[in-house]
């Protein structure tokens, strides 16, 4: 077994505190990674607080993990010690169902194993995440990180990156498309970078006037303050594709009105209230509301390779793990541009 240091929540809503535990010794197909940075995702806060009623404790959060490979099992082919490697939201799946065979492990028919707040396939070991000094994962679920990307800025690609990249690829966002991004946070700022890079004409939709300059800095071509009725009207029936990153409840009909006929509104946030849309708002204009959940392992690798080629990373603020509670407070107040990333040296 491999002893690791971490920060964990021992019970629902608990403040994170130091926690020592052991990772399994590498099996023949396992990769042991010494974690250097871990991004801080809103999901971490939701799961610590058991907002979705599915949390398992003790809980070491974190699913935007990067580090250096320190050891590999005897059958590992893709990795060797010293490699720059990443782990995202998944650490296992059945590997045998139609979805797994298509590389859509996030939809595994027999239940994908999430990186934390989940049980491993043995049914008893609690999977623990990246707010820790090391992790051991089967090579199928380990990503090759492009060496040219700065590790702290690359970590958020493993959740915020793939969550926004995948739906835009699924619906072929590119040149000639008018695309809107709702919300300019951790997900939204990555979405703007990808959409601009794919050649789309990009508009940011936000309720904060102060985000206009940031949207432009990120490469957006237009900014609409959605609380301003005139501005909102000016984009009626305009967009081919809207990516909705909001996790707070909101009126979907307001944004559907901004789609041209045949347009798509794709949601990646998880507000707790239901989507309430009269059928008239989609039938008469052949509009579509869809959801999207992270991405499978092959697409996550494709996204990372794309980011390596195009030098795309997240805008981050690096913190020592001792400041995690303060970071959560600032995230809840939207006071972060745009992702906190924990420097794991602070745990040594
Ligand atoms: Zn996440
Ligand atoms: Zn499966």
Structure commentary:
This protein has eleven helices and 19 strands. The protein is α/β, with parallel strands linked by helices and 348 residues long. The strands form five sheets. Strands 3, 4, 5, 10, 11, 18 and 19 form a seven-stranded mixed sheet that branches. α4 (160-170) crosses α5 and α4 packs across α10. The longest helix has 14 residues, at 297-310. It starts with a strand and ends in a 5-residue tail after the last strand. The model has no long low-confidence stretch (mean pLDDT 97). One zinc ion (ZN) binds at residues 93-94, 96-97, 99-100, 108-110. One zinc ion binds at residues 93-94, 96-97, 99-100, 108-110.
Tell me the layout of helices and strands.
Layout: E1 2-8, E2 17-23, E3 30-39, H1 42-48, E4 65-72, E5 84-87, E6 90-92, H2 98-101, E7 113-114, E8 118-119, E9 126-127, E10 134-138, E11 143-144, H3 151-154, H4 160-170, E12 178-182, H5 186-197, E13 201-206, H6 212-217, E14 222-225, H7 229-234, E15 239-244, H8 252-256, E16 259-267, H9 280-283, E17 288-291, H10 297-310, E18 316-320, H11 324-332, E19 339-343
Parallel strand pairs: 12-13, 12-15, 13-14, 15-16, 16-17, 18-19
Antiparallel strand pairs: 1-2, 3-4, 3-10, 3-19, 4-5, 5-11, 6-7, 8-9
The protein binds zinc ion (2 copies).
Sum this structure up briefly.
The chain has helices at residues 42-48, 98-101, 151-154, 160-170, 186-197, 212-217, 229-234, 252-256, 280-283, 297-310, 324-332, and strands spanning 2-8, 17-23, 30-39, 65-72, 84-87, 90-92, 113-114, 118-119, 126-127, 134-138, 143-144, 178-182, 201-206, 222-225, 239-244, 259-267, 288-291, 316-320, 339-343. With 348 residues, the protein is α/β, with parallel strands linked by helices.
